[in-house]
Amino acid sequence: MITTVYLVRHGVTEWNVARRIAGRLPGIALSADGRREAAAVASRLAALPIRAVAASPLERAHETAAAIARAHGLAVAEDASLTEREYVRWQGLFSAEIRARDPDAVDAVARGDDVPGIEPVGAMAERMWDGMERLVGGHPGGALVIVSHADPIRALIARIIGMPPARLRAIEIGTASLSRLRRRDSSAVVDFANSRAHLGGPLGTDSSSGTDQGRPAARPLS
């Protein structure tokens, strides 16, 4: 029996635009552009027979999930295993500050090394897998939506395809992007990742917001 899982990254926030690391800090909601992105991905999924919508408990993810769930008459199930990567070492700081203050740790994270105060890729992938498994177990054979964050979605996809932690940033996950998995027995297949065609603009980028992620040029962060 095949269960289809749609992975959605939350819409853009002002912190993404400012290249500031939100981590698990509360109170960071979608910007006006982010709400438009959430509406666009919700519209793309509206015609599908979605049985359940689960989300990270952080505001930006829950708000995106609520837009998707409304179209199907569903409630959003919050699941802490789908939350953002733990960035307690850096959260609240701007990317340029982090690079200037903590360059060795930035490089270590980019290599996939374990760094105090930053959640390891393996741990992040396992909790995302566990959260997906609970959802799939409750709705086998259906179509499901998980709304999470860039690095957790990357980590889950990397786990499925066998990509090492050092290559995590080779997977692009834009705001309000859509990725699709097919879950069968004990395995999963990635059909596609980071589709943003619903946002318009060249190659599915959101030309109206001009932002895709709030990362520094060296790309060490979510």
Describe the structure.
This protein is α/β, with parallel strands linked by helices. The protein has a single domain, classed as Rossmann fold (3-Layer(aba) Sandwich), CATH 3.40.50. Helices cover about 35% and strands about 20% of the residues. It contains seven helices and six strands. Strands 3-2-4-1-5-6 form a six-stranded mixed beta sheet, sandwiched between helices. A hairpin with a 2-residue loop joins β5 (about 180-185) and β6 (about 185-195). It is globular and about 50 Å long. The N and C termini lie far apart (about 35 Å).
Summarize the structure.
The protein has one domain: Phosphoglycerate mutase-like (Rossmann fold, 3-Layer(aba) Sandwich), CATH 3.40.50. Helix content is 35%, strand content 18%.
